[in-house]
Every structure is written in C-alpha cells, then in structure tokens.
Amino acid sequence: MRVVFHDWCARKDEIACRFKLEDPKFDGYYDLSIFSDWPAGMEYYFDWYMFPDVARLLFARRKLIESANSYLTSVERDYVRRRVVIESCEEMKEKLKEKYILGCYRNRLLD
C-alpha cells in the first residue's frame, strides 16, 4: 500500500510541475461573487501545490491588493495595539468576510 501512495505522490508532483495554476488575487471590491471565489480559489491553489498550513497565511496575505490589502493592514495594526495576532488563513478569511460579505449585502439593500 505504501508503494501505491508513494507512486501517487511522485506522479502528482510531476503533474504539478507541468501545470502552473494562476494564484487568485482579491482587490476588495464589493462584489459577492468575486469575494466568494477568492477563498475557494486559494484553497484549490494550496491543495494543488500542497502548501503547509504555516505558509498559507503568508501567501494568502500577499495576494490581497488595493483596498483589501489596506483593510487587512488596518486590522493588523489594531490587533498589534491589542497584542493579538492573526494566526491562520481561516482567521484572515473571517475578517475579510466580516467586511466584504456584510458590506456587499449592505450595498445591495441600499440600491
């Protein structure tokens, strides 16, 4: 059984080397479908390249651009003042959901 698992891992590494997935970025615009796609795309990317949990937060953080980056930077500053740290990719996604999913629904209600 171990040989089969090893063969699969070697084959998956070979396949992963041949295909390059585009890493998703999130810009912070209030569009529910774009925000919903970003975490799912990041998870797919992490699974494809077998990212360890420790690297996921750092990599995902670098994929935030424009207003999403500014928002998370302000959240991190607030956390530093309170001596709290965002420790996981899941925690970061929850903070983004608070702003972008609720904000998206708020904007739709105002329309």
Structure summary:
With 111 residues, the protein is mainly α.
Walk me through what this model shows.
The chain has helices at 2-18, 32-48, 53-62, 66-81, 89-110. The longest helix has 22 residues, at 89-110. Residues 1-9 have low confidence and may be disordered. Helix 2 (32-48) runs antiparallel to helix 5. The chain is globular, with a radius of gyration of 17 Å. It contains five helices and no strands.
List keywords for this structure.
single chain; 111 residues; mainly alpha; 5 helices; 74% helix; disordered N terminus
Number of discrete domains: 1
Overall pLDDT metric? 77
Distance between the termini: 58 Å
Shape: globular
Tally of helical segments: 5
Number of strands: 0
> In percent terms, what proportion of residues is strand?
under 5%
What class would the helix/strand composition place it in? mainly alpha
Radius of gyration, in Å, reads 17 Å
Low-pLDDT stretches are: 1-9
Q: Could you estimate the helical fraction of the residues in percent?
A: over 70%
Query: Describe the biggest sheet?
Result: none
Order of helices and strands: HHHHH
